[in-house]
Amino acid sequence: MRPTPHVLPVILALGAPAAWGEGEIAANRNPIAKGEKVTLRWHFTGDKVTVSGGRFGKGTVVTGKTSLEDTPSRTTRYTFNVWYRGRAAGSPAEAAPALLHARYHIDIEVYDPRSAGMAEYRSPSGWLIRTLRQWRADPVPMPDPANNALVFFQKEEDSVERVAVAVVPVREASASALMDRVQQDMPSRYDGIQIHSRKDVTHEGVPAVLTVFSGGDNTHPGTRTTSLVLAFVREGRGYVISARTQASQFAARRPLLEKLVRSFTLTPARSTVSAR
Fold first, then answer.
1. Burial class of residue 254, CB neighbours in 10 A (0-12, 13-18, 19+)
2. Which residues contact 33 (CB under 8 A, 6 or more apart)?
3. Residue partners of 11: CB distance under 8 A and separation at least 6
4. CATH topology of domain 7-18+114-275
5. Cα separation of 152 and 265, whole Å?
6. What is the rounded end-to-end Cα distance, in angstroms, of the chain?
7. pTM value?
8. CA 197 → CA 20, 44, 105, 206, 210, distances in Å?
9. Residue ranges per structural domain of the chain
10. Is 9 left (phi over 0), alpha (psi -120 to 50) or beta?
């Protein structure tokens, strides 16, 4: 059995609109699987706002709205054109407001899970994630399983390449505070830690943080790994979803690993687990 002193060190084997960090438009999830719905939210307004792309064609008026939904069948760019009153840059202070124009866009990546060799794992605790079809699920027994979970998805026990999901009760009110806690726990499992990136994103419609770090896993001497870690907080629970692989392979494997991590979805709780 693996030692399980507490969830966050083990998992590392693996708001406010301003915190969303994805520019002027945020998606609840990106990328998405074919057939899934995406929700876009924005925080700009104007005399006239239009959106094009997907079911909105060459342009649909959305003035006064702040969100929309679509089910794109392929990777799609949504473009927002905004006309608003204001003073152009460099104009004198006494100049009358003029009708100005701004344009924003977001690209939503759509992929086919079946062709990518993915399968679903559905937890009775109310969440779902896609993993590779040949991987197995290794749940770790936890106290108070209704509020705590730790599941590894891997080809064999303690694989270098794997995905992990941890669910824990949290006092942290933000994804940023949860990620701070995750980073503080990294030295318990890794040596020579290097944080490559940390950015604010959205996931499941709430602020999230996505971090990439590398280090030497002390259970695999001589092996340096790179991990992608997503953290967010919702209704008093912290969710930490991570994927790791050998550092030398991370650049090539990242697109797939990120799809797996970002496939994590909250679902209605069920009494049984459905996996593959």
1. middle
2. 110, 111, 112, 113, 130, 263
3. 150, 164, 165, 166, 182, 240, 242
4. Protein Transport Mog1p; Chain A (3.40.1000)
5. 16
6. 24
7. 0.81
8. 16, 28, 23, 20, 8
9. 7-18+114-275, 35-111
10. alpha
Q: Which of 225, 266, 231, 265 is nearest to 247 (CA)?
A: 225
User: Hey, how many other C-beta atoms are within 10 angstroms of the C-beta on 251?
Assistant: 10
* CA separation for the pair 190, 242 (Å, rounded): 15
Give the residue among 89, 149, 117 at the shortest CA–CA distance from 273.
Answer: 149
Q: How far apart are CA 149 and CA 139, in angstroms?
A: 8
Tokens of 153: 């998805």
Which strands, in side-by-side order, build the sheet including 67-70? 25-27, 38-42, 67-70
Position 228: which residue type? L
Averaged pLDDT, groups of 10, the chain, 276 residues long: 36 34 78 95 94 96 96 97 89 85 95 95 93 96 86 96 95 89 95 96 92 95 96 94 98 96 83 41
- In the numeric block, the tokens 């649909």 are attached to 60
